[in-house]
Amino acid sequence: MDHTIKRVETIPVSLPLIKPVLMGDNQEIRSSDSLLVRLETASGVTGWGEASAAPKMTGETLLGMKQLVDTQFSQMLLGQNIVDWAMVNDQIQNGIPGNTGAKAACNIALYDLYGKCCNISVSDLLGGRIRRQIPVMTLLANPTIQEDLLDAARYYQGGIRFFKLKIGVKSIEEEIATLNELRRLYGSAIFLSADANAGLCLVDAKLILQGIAQSNLLFFEQALASGDLDGSVQLAQLQHAPLCADESAHDIAHIIRWHEHGAIAGVNLKTIKFGGIGGVSTAAKVAHALGLEVNLASKAGESSLGTSALIHLAYTVPNINWGVTPSCQYLQEDIVEQKIVIENGSVICPTGPGLGVDINEKMVNKYRIEHLS
Asked: Is the domain 125-347 a CATH 3.20.20.120 member?
């Protein structure tokens, strides 16, 4: 078979959520805008990748991601044999600085295509699965305490034991009350964390940490602005909860720096921050070697396509003690034939070559954005 890449297609999509996800810093997500990259060989084998546009995290817009793949990365991909996928990926990762979301979409598509051509799963490409199940972390992101508690009860009945409350949605007093009430209701049966999405000032972050000091948080994620290393060191010294870096952990150098300053106990890793599957795998190994905990996460509203990459990683990286946060379950409709399955608090790794998911092109076309501006 001819495994030469003959076609590169970029497809921007906007996938509506079942209900808005409220986040700190006055963010409200009603839909997920993502770039799909479709690679096709001369023999007709296809590989797909997905990356969400996250301007506040990676600095990329959907239009910019599409233009970069169309004008630059496609030229690096076309005419290349998928056998040389690692060299092609290296050129994409290092040929242009930044743009980790656009790189992630291409990287995931390359992994998927190579796996399909070789009849091997992405998890096997990464060295094989080292665990039989992974703990799913679910978001609580509602405007009222009661809604958060109702969601938590519903998820708990479904087997979920890892919860992350989005901070900055309600008043400080209400956020504290929500976390403390969740701990009172479920005790040690749940793992409880919080995420401020870089939306707090130092004073408010201290107030919240002091208010939940007895709630035994698994971690408190990104309380302050991404560059506020000194403030994060101050919060860490309070020792009220382990701190997790997300927006601050956008490359390995920053992970090492924040660790050396004692500012964090763990990191949140996303494919859009590290250029795809390979980058997250490397970052997870570095974090583990440093003694840091790891939470793997999708950007809110990624489909089962992007989520499948996350799940293959979750089954293979050394440490996921802080859980795995997929987000395809929040979508009204998915773009794959069989969506990622969550059973009894764990997500099942897709089987089959590549990512193990089949794209429903009818659904892709339904949510395709025809004109970007």
From this structure: yes
Rounded CA-CA distance 1/158 in Å is 45
Question: Cα(301)–Cα(21) distance, rounded to whole angstroms?
Answer: 9
Residues 171, 172, 176, CA angle at the centre, nearest 5°?
115
Give the model confidence (pLDDT) of 47-93 as tens digits.
999 999 999 899 999 999 999 999 999 999 999 999 999 999 999 99
Structure tokens at 150: 């109702």
How far the first Cα of the chain sits from its last, in Å, is 40
What is the fold, at CATH topology level, of the domain defined by 5-122+359-367? Enolase-like; domain 1 (3.30.390)
Position of tokens 């034939």?
Answer: 337
Question: Which string of b and e fits 242-281 if b means at least 16 CB within 10 Å?
Answer: bbbbbbbbbebebbeebbeeebbbbbbbbbbbbbbbbbbb
Give whole-number Cα distances, 363 to 14, 53, 188, 189, 336, in Å.
11, 19, 41, 39, 8
Q: Is 266 helix (H, G, I), strand (E, B) or coil?
A: strand
Compute the C-alpha angle 339/220/256, nearest 5°: 90
Domain boundaries, the chain: 5-122+359-367, 125-347
The predicted model scores a pTM of 0.96
